[in-house]
């Protein structure tokens, strides 16, 4: 299994409703992608204040394998949502942190 973690540092002028729409769109893509078995979106709730380095919201997607993850990455709808996410992030792509884990 591949756990695809994406953390976002949104621009301060991006309203919570826009953030929620982006995350909702990510969840809707997850519902139709083969091999995408779980989607979790939301705000960081860690009590370790300051450790998030401003990446206060994000999402985690679990894929059966790297092939399913790779199919998601090239999906046209994913790419459109990704472009909106980059546009809403502080400093564009620099405001997004992606980390994938191989889960046994």
Describe, in plain words, how this protein is organized in 3D.
By secondary structure, the protein is of the alpha+beta class. The chain has a single domain, classed as Alpha-Beta Plaits. It is 38% helix and 28% strand. A four-stranded antiparallel beta sheet has the order 2-3-1-4. Helix 1 runs antiparallel to helix 3. The longest helix is centred in the first third of the chain and has 17 residues. The radius of gyration is 13 Å and the shape is globular. The mean pLDDT is 96. This is Dabb family protein. It comes from Nocardioides zeicaulis. InterPro entries: Dabb, Dimeric_a/b-barrel. Pfam families: Dabb.
Features:
28% strand; Alpha-Beta Plaits; alpha+beta; 104 residues; Dimeric_a/b-barrel; single chain
Concise structural overview:
By secondary structure, this protein is α+β, with helices and mostly antiparallel strands. It contains three helices and four strands. It has a single domain, classed as 2-Layer Sandwich (Alpha-Beta Plaits).
Q: Main sheet?
A: 4 strands, antiparallel
CATH topology: Alpha-Beta Plaits
Order of helices and strands: EHEEHHE
Helix content: 25-40%
Span between termini:
6 Å
- Gyration radius, in Å: 13 Å
Question: What is the overall pLDDT average?
Answer: 96
Class by SSE composition: alpha+beta
Q: Topology, please?
A:
Layout: E1 2-8, H1 16-32, E2 36-43, E3 57-63, H2 66-74, H3 76-88, E4 96-102
Antiparallel strand pairs: 1-3, 1-4, 2-3
Helix pairs in contact: 1-3
